[in-house]
Specification:
- The chain is mostly helical.
- Helix content is 63%, strand content 0%.
- It has two domains: 54 residues; 72 residues, no CATH class.
Length: 155
């Protein structure tokens, strides 16, 4: 009987050692996986930063040719148009081409108008207007209004 008890105790110790070894191995694997994820995230952030640095600025010191009537974009009135011009935004194509980071940058500078670019779908409107697709614009966003009116529909 004493031998069986010793064998059971030895077996229990052996099982405990195996369980602890498995737990330690799992923790080591988890730590390695976490480190790899952090390294991948850091590398992705560095690549995004480099891509943003390599990308030409969507902001211009002055319009290239004649500035577009940004008030044709629903949600942009005279004050927002002036704000955008002050930032260096003069053309539909600029708005249409904003990256998410550039959109966030513009939005952060709009003060009380923050949130408007996404809520009013400026980029969708700008893409259609830049392409001259008035029918597509009106299907997606409603009647454009009188394009000859300098106040535009968003005034």
């Amino acid at each position: 009987m004493e031998n069986i008890t010793l064998w059971l105790a030895a077996l229990a110790v052996l099982v405990a050692v195996v369980v602890v070894a498995l737990i330690l191995r799992a923790q080591k694997q988890k730590a390695a996986r976490l480190a790899a994820e952090q390294q991948a995230a850091a590398q992705l952030a560095a690549e995004e930063q480099k891509a943003a640095a390599d990308m030409p600025s969507p902001f211009l010191p002055h319009p290239e040719g004649e500035a577009d009537n940004l008030r044709q974009i629903k949600g942009i009135g005279p004050k927002l148009e002036t704000l955008l011009h002050d930032m260096g935004v003069f053309h539909f194509a600029q708005i249409a081409g904003w990256t998410p980071q550039q959109l966030a940058h513009v939005d952060s500078r709009l003060g009380n108008f923050a949130g408007r670019p996404e809520r009013d779908q400026w980029q969708s409107q700008a893409r259609l207007l830049a392409a001259g697709d008035i029918k597509g614009y009106e299907r997606a966003h409603g009647k454009l209004g009188n394009a000859a009116d300098p106040a535009g529909p968003g005034a």
